[in-house]
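FAQ: What does the model actually see?

It sees only this:
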Amino acid sequence: MCTILYDKDGNELEYHNLQDKLHWCREGESKEQAFVRRYVSLGYKMNPEKESNEYAPDLISTTNVLTDLKSQHSPFFKAGERYGIDPNFAVVFNVKDKVRYKKEYPDIDILYYVDWIAVRANIYGKSYEVQPLIGVYRISFQDFLPILDGAPVHEYIQRKGDLRGNAKDSYVLDIRDPAFERLH
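And it is asked to produce this:
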């Protein structure tokens, strides 16, 4: 295996094939529900439209703002060497989501739930490490657009020619940008 991930206690993490979109969509649904239960004080609930439309935004706030949840549990360990962004704080956002939100949900909020379960990686024999980080960050899509316009784009080499609907590229961002509001 070319990448091995480890948790904060040094235990090797097992993970499912990252290209299996159906698996990750199902996994995402359970994580969304767990997030709502864990952070009930933040005022989000599951978007009722998700029951009939799996592509609907994940959450809705108590002020009726549609919100898409981006749960990230493994850092982009190579963000520093590739894009100059500290991997402790690097998050990603799919290019195709920007296109879809501009067209269908221009007033949506984006909510990042960052919980680095993986804190060390061995990638092709080279070791990478980050500090544990847990946080919830919000940004309106309209405030997000200028950040995306200036962000580097990472192309997923293993997804060239993908026919499963996986994102082929993502923006690489620094969650410390002051435009992100830390909620927790």
